[in-house]
Amino acid sequence: MPDTAPSRPATPWSPPAPAAPARTPRERRRTGAEIWIVLGLSLGQSAVYALVNIVARLTAETSLADQSATLNASRSPRPWLDLTYQLLGIGFALVPVVLAIYLLSARGPGTLRRIGFDAARPGRDTAWGVALAAAIGLPGLAFYALGRALGITVSVQASALDAHWWTVPVLILAALQNGLVEEVIAVAYLTERTTDLGWTRLKIIATSALLRGSYHLYQGIGPFLGNVVMGILFAWFYTSRWGRHRVLPLVVAHTVLDVVAFVGYALVPAEWRAGLGIT
Asked: Segment Disordered: which positions (predicted)?
């Protein structure tokens, strides 16, 4: 069974200590199986599809630079049905997040506090989130432009939703969904559970970063590399003296980045988008 030893109490200035690692071979096997199940239902599944997708792209007659990827596509020409599909997609995508938190709760009470997914430090968490978004946002845009110039990144359309009263709220919810799924699972859950397996910090950061890069492969080699860098920064921050095992700043940062990308997409002048290769 998963380790149920409670973590030591933490002061406001130090991260909660992780639960004792799984000790017996059976506990380690169950923890490993649990990780694979959670990933198989969420980001691991996306990574496999993205790997198949990039192989298909690279072996296609059309060059990678001339291909495109669409985010937040419309799912029905009927507005009310499109809205329904969008909300259902967002809702069901969050189920693995709930599952991951539920499984972490087997380690003892205070799960949300242990991974920093609570409202204990709203101001500090928000400030760190905005700072991380700024640190990633502009370099990320430059990296995307470089990838387009080198022909290793597809043209990305951030939103293909038709203009409705609900378009912007849905895009904001989609951004929040991405932030929750990726940061809670790829950083907080994966870090906590691999720590239970006795992994080193370096191995945890590398695994989290490679996972993040892998499920972005459908956008090309450039986004894979860019997201690996982002994954290194986010996983390092989470385990650092500044991050203090708090995932909320990462959720804020990711959500801000995606809101700017999704909602701000329509506000960018067409000639700028053309220059960046964004259709």
From this structure: 1-27
Q: 3-state SS string over the chain?
A: CCCCCCCCCCCCCCCCCCCCCCCCHHHHHHHHHHHHHHHHCCHHHHHHHHHHHHHHHHCCCCCHHHCEEECCCCCCCCHHHHHHHHHHHHHHHCHHHHHHHHHHHHHCCCHHHHCCCCCCCHHHHHHHHHHHHHHHHHHHHHHHHHHHHHCCECEEECCCCCCCCCHHHHHHHHHHHHHHHHHHHHHHHHHHHHHHCCCCHHHHHHHHHHHHHHCCHHHEHHHHHHHHHHHHHHHHHHCCCCCCCCCHHHHHHHHHHHHHHHHHHHHCCHHHHHHHCCC
The per-residue pLDDT for range 199-246, each reduced to its tens digit, is: 999 999 999 999 999 999 999 999 999 999 999 999 999 999 999 999
Which residues have C-beta within 8 Å of that of residue 127, sequence separation ≥ 6?
none
H helices within 151-220, ranges in order?
167-183, 190-196, 201-214
Find where tokens 């559970």 sit. Answer: 193
Q: Using CA atoms, how far apart are residues 179 and 48, in angstroms rounded to an integer?
A: 20
**Residue 256: inside a domain, yes or no?**
yes
Domain range for 73:
25-276
Q: Are 54 and 218 in contact (CB under 8 A)?
A: yes
The token pair at 65 is 């630079």
Residue 90: both structure tokens together: 């967002």
**pTM for the whole thing?**
0.89
Please give the tally of structural domains in the chain: 1
Question: Residue 178 falls within a domain, yes or no?
Answer: yes
Flag whether 38 is in a domain. Answer: yes
